[in-house]
């Protein structure tokens, strides 16, 4: 499938201005140029164009919000000047598996002031003597080259960190505590009901005693009334 048709499918009846991420990996570029992308993709932040046969970026449109660009496994050997002009806010650029041979080709990336991570895996340039030192010197804004900084510390995997955090939020002891709380509430509730039953039994016994007493009292009252009636008759 050619790149232009693939992009149309990826839009899914949305306007280009609504698209934040776009992946067109393994589609085909007929003439080695970017096809189907326009200046209308104003909100695009992530673009993946892996293995599409690109040999030039000359037709890349202006993407002012683009921060991450995947261009691995293409045929790029130069023409990186347009990146600084069209994508000035790039922080991550993957050029691995391309035909970049010379250090001078990377000079165009000096104008990408926000560039933090650059990947050049499987490019011929990596076989140059002092390759890493030279790239870090040429591009001082870059923190990670091929996944490692100048001290050979690996770049953090932000996506994995996000998943871990989400997992902790979802799974967590909160649910266990909730169950324990429910159990405690059930136990408390059961004890409370038992106490209620005991109180009811005590109340019933007291009520029976009270009912007995008035009965005797009423009997005494009747007797008294009878005696009073006898007295009245005598009078």
Automatic annotation (TrEMBL):
UniProt KW Cytoplasm keyword: yes
Gene Ontology cellular-component terms listed: cytoplasm; nucleus
GO MF annotations in UniProt: histone binding; phosphatase inhibitor activity
Pfam annotation, one family: LRR_9
Domain of life: Eukaryota
One GO process term, biological-process aspect: chromatin organization
Compartments it resides in: Cytoplasm; Nucleus
Domain U2A'/phosphoprotein 32 family A C-terminal: 128-146
PROSITE patterns found in the cross-reference section: LRR
Ranges for region Disordered: 148-235
Sequence similarity: Belongs to the ANP32 family.
Database matches in PANTHER family: ACIDIC LEUCINE-RICH NUCLEAR PHOSPHOPROTEIN 32, ACIDIC LEUCINE-RICH NUCLEAR PHOSPHOPROTEIN 32 FAMILY MEMBER E
Function: Multifunctional protein that is involved in the regulation of many processes.
Name of the protein in its database record: Acidic leucine-rich nuclear phosphoprotein 32 family member
Lineage: Eukaryota, Metazoa, Chordata, Craniata, Vertebrata
């Amino acid at each position: 499938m050619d790149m232009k048709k693939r992009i149309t499918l990826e839009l899914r009846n949305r306007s280009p201005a609504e698209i934040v991420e776009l992946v067109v990996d393994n589609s085909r570029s007929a003439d080695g140029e970017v096809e189907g992308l326009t200046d209308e993709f104003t909100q695009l932040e992530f673009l993946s164009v892996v293995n599409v046969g690109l040999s030039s970026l000359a037709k890349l449109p202006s993407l002012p919000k683009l921060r991450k660009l995947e261009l691995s496994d293409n045929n790029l050997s130069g023409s990186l000047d347009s990146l600084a002009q069209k994508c000035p806010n790039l922080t991550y650029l993957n050029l691995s598996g391309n035909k970049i041979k010379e250090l001078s080709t990377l000079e165009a990336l000096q104008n990408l002031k926000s560039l933090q991570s650059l990947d050049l895996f499987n490019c011929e340039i990596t076989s140059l003597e002092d390759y890493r030192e030279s790239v870090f010197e040429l591009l001082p804004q870059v923190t990670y080259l091929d996944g490692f900084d100048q001290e050979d510390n690996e770049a953090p995997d932000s996506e994995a960190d996000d998943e871990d955090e989400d997992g902790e939020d979802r799974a967590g002891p909160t649910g266990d505590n909730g169950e324990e709380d429910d159990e405690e509430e059930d136990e408390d509730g059961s004890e409370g009901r038992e106490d209620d039953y005991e109180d009811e039994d005590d109340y019933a016994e007291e009520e029976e005693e009270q009912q007995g007493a008035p009965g005797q009292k009423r009997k005494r009252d009747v007797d008294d009334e009878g005696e009073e009636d006898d007295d009245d008759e005598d009078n």
